[in-house]
Amino acid sequence: MDKTQNIKETPTSLMDEEPILEIKDLKKAFGNNHVLNGFSLNLFKGENLVIMGKSGSGKSVMIKCLVGLIQPDSGSIKVMGKAITTLNRTDLDELRTEIGFLFQGSALYDSMTVRENLEFPLRRHKSRFKNITDTTPLVMEALESVGLVNAINLMPSELSGGMKRRIALARTLILKPKIILYDEPTSGLDPITSKEIIALMRKIQKKYNTSSLIITHDVDCARVVSERIVLLVNGINYAEGTYKELAASKDQNVRAFFK
Ligand SMILES: Nc1ncnc2c1ncn2[C@@H]1O[C@H](COP(=O)(O)OP(=O)(O)O)[C@@H](O)[C@H]1O
Ligand SMILES: [Mg+2]
């Protein structure tokens, strides 16, 4: 089978540009479970790219390969022109500060206040922030961006689900990443809170000029938040295009996502 048969050409408006993130032929198996079978995609500067795939299709595995939490079996990942498999520990750590990762769920540290949660990445990446003695302005700016300045001294247990998601996003923003990876940012939230988070993702894209990969199975989220969508089916980039293009597809596997 020709793996690229359904893949749209890169939009002409983006063709001259170097992708900020380039995944080529990524493969990952766990024993006999072949999860990624040559997955490829390009993320361009300033775009929100949504990845849809059914549960267990390997979306989280793919995103974990990008941040080095899972080692792929083969394939290449280039971030801002650098192949991450060729970097030494220090350079990889440095590059990682450019990539914000919002985990599935919010994964705040329950024993730390909101402020301490936000300060954590600053302490982890000391080398980049060694000249900063007062973290307050950075913490306040990040909280401001998600509209939760007043939550600074609260514990995670005092926050609603939507607030936790916002704080987790603020913790990602504090490093001013160029790329943000969102793993199911609206899962488990009620429809109104989901809409708020989606609006916030758009706001952050504009304010910080970030490029994002957004994993979701929420069709509404995909429609509102994305410039382009990639469908992960059978471990490959099965189809890609705008919401409009994919929603108009006659391919059975593509149609399944838009019912
Ligand atoms: N660390 C792991 N060890 C073994 N199998 C894993 C691991 N992580 C994920 N898997 C398997 O990989 C497949 C894809 O998982 P995942 O990427 O989490 O799916 P989703 O698309 O729902 O995010 C599943 O079959 C899952 O059981
Ligand atoms: Mg997942």
UniProtKB/TrEMBL annotation:
This is ABC transporter ATP-binding protein. SUPFAM superfamilies: P-loop containing nucleoside triphosphate hydrolases (SSF52540). Residues 21-259 form the ABC transporter domain. One of its GO terms (molecular function) is ATP binding. It comes from Gelatiniphilus marinus. The lineage of its organism: Bacteria, Pseudomonadati, Bacteroidota, Flavobacteriia, Flavobacteriales. Keywords: ATP-binding, Nucleotide-binding, Transport. It comes from the Bacteria. Pfam families: ABC_tran (PF00005).
